[in-house]
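New to this. Explain the following:
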Amino acid sequence: MSARAPAIILGGTGYVAGELLRLVLGHPRLALDAIASDSQPGEPVAKAFPHLAAACDGLQYVSLDQAIERAAMHPRAAVLAAAPHGVSHRLLDGLLTRAAAAGARPAVVDISADFRYADLDEYARVYKHAHGAPARAREFTCAVPEHLDRSPTPHVAHPGCFCTATLLASVPLLALDLVEPQVYVSAITGSTGAGRSPIAGTHHPQRHSDLYSYNALTHRHAAEITALARAASGKDGYFAFVPHSGPFARGIHATVQARLKKPLDTAAAIAALRGFYANRRFVRVLDEAPRMKDVVASNYAHLSAVADGRTVVVMSVIDNLVKGAAGGALQWMNRLLGFDETDGLVAPAPGWT
């Protein structure tokens, strides 16, 4: 494909949608065709994202129905879905049905949890409701881009941000058979991970200068991590996952620990990670502990490791809104459309955020 592909963003007022918009507007191979919001059709997009006003002056939201019609108008559109969990499956089923009737073949990347599970019974157990489009689920594959070279299905579901950070750190340990299959994860996320609607966990006076865990060992992402780690590594693992709320807006720091199967020192652990992620443009393995400020607002992940012969610890940092959501989704979309996977994503972190 030499011409720019039309891009349609669904669920257009949240933080992830804002990052999708920012990245699409700067993408060399995509042209924004529509951004949809059922709550604000006809409203200026800059009203929701004033920091993007210079790039989207005059742009207005369309309704979801209008976005579905527009997707059916193009032979090959890029559909990036940032709709909520429990909404996305029916929305995308309707869009793909309408597109097929018109002879169109949109490429879809969904950022919700609705198409992340191959086992729909597991999805229902975790999310407490039946899947709304079970026949459509087989058309989606879920994986971190660095763990699967090519999707075997026409559409992709991007893993969650906690999952992305944890899987980048843990999958090499399991795939290389370096550790026992009990993995312990402590991960801290910024307030943007809770979404745009104000709640107690994201209210600034509550979160500022504080740090606390929540849903320890019961968080819904644990099941997702377990399933995706198995698919990527071929090994069954038990993940003891403890998430934390951090006093910052964006970024995730995950610390992954496991018992080594045979003695390994720090240099060998770092070398193993480097070998596993060789030629993976967006994953960098460092000799020193990674810092979130070095990746925030970028699509890069920084990893490092420490080992003492009995235990290995891998530290992983990503931006939750980019590598953990919009950027990772765009990385997959580049692949689905036959572009270079780095298109529109190579900008470094701004630093000092």
Remarks:
- The radius of gyration is 20 Å.
- The chain has a mean pLDDT of 96.
- The chain has two domains: 5-142, 162-320.
- The first strand starts at residue 5 and ends at 10.
